[in-house]
UniProtKB/TrEMBL annotation:
UniProt-recorded name of the protein: Uncharacterized protein
Residues spanning the signal sequence: 1-23
Organism per entry: Ostreobium quekettii
InterPro entries in the cross-refs: Ankyrin_rpt (IPR002110), Ankyrin_rpt-contain_sf (IPR036770)
Repeat region (ANK), residues: 88-120, 121-153, 155-187, 188-220, 221-255, 256-288
Pfam families per record: Ank (PF00023), Ank_2 (PF12796)
SUPFAM superfamilies named in the record: Ankyrin repeat
Keyword terms: ANK repeat, Repeat, Signal
Keyword flag Signal: yes
């Protein structure tokens, strides 16, 4: 595990890099009822309707269990391949894709399932498979013509964004090879690169940068990937170096003037502060209220004894005396 203090996590939230609303694909229980509640299919008044509902139910159970044979049987028995299930109205294809059932997904595609079908949140089968890291299912859907850059209506998320957030490198590579737009942003402005950095998923960050992702795209409050990288002690160093090598602006400032170097000072991130300074980051930059990076160091020079020696900073977890001294040195 990469070291990330509680404050660093709070920082991610502050930077607007909170998790995308998780795409919920309802679990289907043994009776084919969406566990999120929903209607009791047996209450249908008309016998014909009841029969149709039952084969549709058979289809959804088969999809959720990954039973390709049963899928074919349900379709042959008159099931509507596009029938919707659960509160979010997912199709059999999305449910099978989410569960990673390749044979079931192929059977549904072969039977003519709409690979672009979206649920009430705009979640497609491709998004559901990408979220769970099912690369073979992702490939099957792409081959069948799934729209690689489809954005969810709920939050603007794409398959690439959700796969990057989850650190699913093979899926990310496959989506990029199929023409995914690496710079498409979700609502709020978070890109695949920002969310990969927030993982932190170093290899995904490298893959996205290699594919030409723009390291200077900020979100709605002006936070760029380098701000996020600076909050990670450990993985932050490699990510910051990669971002800078790809042209990241080391002095990028948010709407309030916060720079990556200030973030590194706040969390006591010595390696990232060094990388930033070596790349020419300005230690004298001021944010709102004339506050500089040195004012934001969190910790004491005398291990808490001499109160006057404590730097107030924007404190979360206080850095050790040694760390404070090193950061001071780097900022000097
Ligand atoms: C497939 O689903 C998409 C998204 O819901 C819809 O726009 C499209 O019309 C559907 N295609 C067919 C052939 O029904």
């Amino acid at each position: 595990m990469v070291a990330m203090g509680r404050w660093a996590f709070a920082f991610l939230l502050l930077m607007g890099v909170a998790e995308l609303a998780a795409a919920r694909v309802p679990n289907i229980d043994a009776r084919g009822e969406a566990s999120s509640g929903g209607r009791d299919l047996l209450h249908s008044r008309r016998l014909v309707m009841k029969k149709a509902n039952e084969v549709n139910k058979d289809l959804i159970i088969a999809a959720s269990e990954g039973n390709a044979k049963a899928i074919k049987k349900a379709i042959a028995g008159g099931a509507d391949i596009e029938s919707k299930h659960g509160d979010q109205e997912d199709t059999a294809l999305t449910i099978a894709a989410h569960a990673g059932h390749l044979a079931a997904v192929k059977a549904l595609i072969d039977a003519g399932a709409n690979v672009s079908a979206a649920d009430t949140e705009g979640t497609t089968a491709l998004f559901a498979a990408a979220q769970e890291g099912h690369v073979k299912v992702v490939d099957a859907l792409l081959k069948a013509g799934a729209e690689v850059n489809a954005q969810r209506s709920a939050d603007g998320g794409t398959a690439l964004i959700i796969a990057s957030q989850g650190g699913h490198l093979p899926v990310v590579q496959s989506l990029i090879a199929s023409g995914a737009d690496v710079d498409l942003a979700a609502d709020g402005g978070a890109t695949a690169l920002t969310l990969a950095v927030a993982g932190p998923h170093v290899k995904v960050v490298a893959a996205l940068l290699e594919a030409g992702a723009d390291p200077n795209l900020g979100n709605d409050i002006g936070a760029v990937p380098l701000h996020v990288a600076a909050s990670f002690v450990g993985a932050g160093e490699a990510m910051a170096s990669q971002l800078i090598a790809s042209g990241a602006n080391v002095d990028a400032a948010t709407a309030t003037g916060l720079t990556p170097l200030m973030v590194a000072a706040r969390v006591g991130n010595v390696p990232v502060a060094m990388v930033l300074r070596e790349a020419g980051a300005d230690a004298g930059a001021e944010m709102e209220g004339g506050v500089k990076a040195t004012d934001q160091i969190c910790g004491c020079l005398e291990d808490g004894e001499g109160e006057s020696a404590c730097l107030e900073g924007v404190c979360g977890e206080a850095s050790k005396k040694e760390t404070v001294e090193k950061i001071m040195e780097i900022l000097a």
